[in-house]
Structures are given as structure tokens and as C-alpha cells.
């Protein structure tokens, strides 16, 4: 019998997390009369003592939460309980984390995260007999078995908006504008925003490019469209011509991308003598108000996740397929990492529009 559940957000934040937490609280307290505890800062809230949590009431989760970016619970993309960072390297703190779940008296946990976080949460659940249900979130939209993860749609809209802002200034100055967007190893944001925002060139990590092909496309615009400006969108994980990732710093525990926009921009300026400017959108894609689709998906996921717990269905991730919410095994979703496929409708659409994909 479930009476008390926990919810945590883990990994990089994104727009729509608060809408999901709100939906969980409303469904769990309203339909089932359960208590809901928000665990702070991902699993860190269960590792630290005193435990870090908040009792969540419906009054606290009003409609302002639908509109609010970030996560009211806090999050982290560094604290893996199985390799928790400390002064002398990393240690396994999974036992403390499981003990924290038990100390709080939780009967089940809803974890909202991307592939890395969900993988860790599943290991933790197996080790500690935690009744876990997962909700997918990631602006990168690279989790398997779900067409949409929370945060993706808003990130795409933000990137499209940036192209909308760049186009008039590119036209006014007859410049080549390069926009670097996020997407850790997958080009979903770049291709979707590039189509919606009218990019001339879209570069994604899944498709190899040549600078010559990009330059030919830019040159051709004056003949085919009588204009001397161009918009290029490039995903952060696109590699340089030698196949090396372009990174800000390697000192971190995982690669932090940044700089491919400038790399591409410099090459174009060198080859064409064009006036090039580069914008890197960075975390602007993560913050901000969630758009309508992210609010809707987050709300539907939250309600469905609570219902799964009520049915005693654990170890499942909610997923969006054909405008339905369904549930899949967490391990299948994590295993099925979803990069951009070459036969994806958006790749076909881009090619059909004559957008250059660099190849
Ligand atoms: O995975 C989401 C994401 O926003 C990636 O697109 C990006 O590479 C990364 O997180 C940035 O992480 P951080 O917030 O640690 O800089």
C-alpha cells in the first residue's frame, strides 16, 4: 500500500520540470490521498544528512509552477551515488542514498531525468528495492522509446527564436550568421530549429560535413535566391574536420562541448572572405518558460507516472508515442539511445527543402 512518495529531478535542468512535479502532486494527493515529498538536488538530497527534502502540498504547486523554468527541487548532473565526488576522488554512497529513502519512509519514488540519471536511478532501485517510476526529460531528446522528452520542445523554440533574431541582422549586413546550439551527441535540436527557423545549412554530429560543400551552398544563394547572407545552425557535438570534438574544457569528469560554431565560422571566413558572426546559445536553451507542448507533456507524464505507481507497475518509464502516453521498461529506454537517424522525417524534410546538411 502506497502512502508516501518521493519525487526528484536529476541531470541538467530544462523547461517543464516544475509542471511535471505539479502534476505528480495534484494526482497523488487529489486522486489517491498520498503524501508527496520532493527530494532536493537529485539523489544528493538522500545522501546528505540531514536529508534534504520538502513536503509538497497542492497549495504550493499552483499554476505558477506551470510557467516556471528550472526545477523548484534543484538538480545535479555530477552526483552519481555509486561514484560520488569528494575531496579524495569518488566513493560509493549508494547505501546512504538507499538508507535516506527508507529514513524518509517513502513507499515509492518518481525520478525525472535523462538517460544517465535514469540508468543510475534504476541501479539504485534494484539495489535498494525502491519502487521506481521514471519520467524522461532532456533538451537533447535522445532517450529511446519516447518521441518527446520534457524540455526538448522549448529548447527547439528558443533556438528557432534565435534564428528569427539573427535573420534580419544577417540580411542587413550581408553576413553569414552561425548559431551553435546544444545537443549532447545528437542533432535533434539543430535539425528541428534549423527547419523551423529557415537555416541554409544545418550541421549535426550524425552527418559528416565538408567545409567546401558548406561554402558552395553559401555562394549559391546569391544566384538561386539573390541574397548575400546565410544562416547556419550547428550542434555543439559536431566534430572538427579531423574528427575531434571541440570542447571548452577536458578537466571535467565528462567532455563539455563548446566552440564548434567559431571553428566553422573561421573556416568559412577564410575560404569565402565572408563577414561571419557566431552566436552560441548555451544554457539559454535550458532556462526560460516552458512552451505549451512541454507543459502538456509534463502534465500528462506526471499524471500517468502516479497512476503507474497506484497500479503497482514499477521499473517503468512513461513515454510519448503517437500522441499517447505509454510505459516502457526503463532499461529499454536507456539502452535505446536515440541519435538522429538518416531516414528521419526531419532529415528528409531538410533535404527536400534544399537545406545543406554539409555532406
Ligand atoms: O544534456 C543536456 C545538456 O544541456 C547538453 O545539451 C549539454 O551539452 C549539457 O547538458 C550541458 O551541461 P552543463 O549544464 O553541465 O553545462
Automatic annotation (TrEMBL):
Nucleotidyltransferase is among the record's keywords: no
Chloroplast as UniProt keyword: no
SUPFAM superfamilies: Phosphofructokinase
Phosphofructokinase domain segment(s): 4-309
Binding site for ATP: 12, 78-79, 114-117
Cofactor(s) demanded: Mg(2+)
Site residues (Important for substrate specificity), renumbered to this chain: 116
UniProt pathway annotation: Carbohydrate degradation; glycolysis; D-glyceraldehyde 3-phosphate and glycerone phosphate from D-glucose: step 3/4
PROSITE patterns tied to this protein: PHOSPHOFRUCTOKINASE
Location(s) in or outside the cell: Cytoplasm
EC number in record: 2.7.1.11
One Gene Ontology biological process: fructose 6-phosphate metabolic process
Binding positions (Mg(2+)): 115
GO cellular component: 6-phosphofructokinase complex
Subunit text: Homodimer or homotetramer.
Function recorded in the entry: Catalyzes the phosphorylation of D-fructose 6-phosphate to fructose 1,6-bisphosphate by ATP, the first committing step of glycolysis.
Protein name in the entry: ATP-dependent 6-phosphofructokinase
Source species: Candidatus Odyssella acanthamoebae
